[in-house]
Amino acid sequence: MRINAYVYCIEKMDECIKVFKALSDTKRLKIIWLLTNIDEKVCVSEIVEVLDEYQYNVSRHLKILKEANLISDVGDGKWVYYNLTPITSEFRHLVQEAIKAMPTAQMKKEINKCKSLLAKRDN
Q: Cα-flanking dihedrals φ and ψ of residue 86, to 5°?
């Protein structure tokens, strides 16, 4: 029984480490921050435009976030949209709350760009 508990703790620790590593990059943190505060699914091209970043880099960042189980993707025709994965643990809840608490002043430009793009999508 002790071995199973030990393995469980190691697996949980690995999950935490993956999340912290994924969020240790400024661009990935901005992507998660946007998904958290915009509360909308977004596609790669929208993230590229909002962050003024190359498509290759955004795709690489999204892959890392997906491997950390922070985001998931949903296909819709020729488009793939990304959104936050549902929160399934107290740890993830606390991480999400910490991200929500980050100051919006540093992200005003990105927020406005994202809202503008999302508004165009509806038209």
A: -60, 145
Is residue 29 a contact partner of residue 23, using CB atoms and an 8 Å limit?
Answer: yes
Least Cα distance to 79 among 42, 51, 27, 28 occurs for 42
3-class DSSP state of 95: helix
Judge whether 34 and 106 are in contact, CB under 8 Å.
Answer: no
3-state secondary structure of 80: strand
What pLDDT shows up at residue 77? 85
Q: Is the pTM of this model over 0.70?
A: yes
- R_g over Cα of the chain: 16
Please give the Cα distance from 7 to 67 (Å, whole number). Answer: 20
Look at the alpha carbons of 32, 36, 41, 45 in this order and tell me if their dihedral is positive or negative: negative
CB-hemisphere CA count at 13 Å for 37? 21
